[in-house]
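= Tokenised fold =
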Amino acid sequence: MRYFANLFALKDKVIDRRHSMKLFIAEKPSLAQAIAAGIGNGKKSDGYISVNGGKEIVTWCYGHILVRLNPDEYAEKYRSW
């Protein structure tokens, strides 16, 4: 749930939709800090790190974002391939 709270906090930061922003989502705060450090000088806020004057945002979740399924979980026909 913290992930969604982070995204809701970010929506108030977008002032003009004509200007684009890059959003990076990491699996944990330490990875987000590493991404922000690699991009450039970041400013840490509650639930996200603003980089390049807010043009790029790095936020994080707790736990795995994506999970790989077994072939048969997509469709039974893939059980034995």
About this structure: The helical segments are 2-11, 29-39, 71-74.
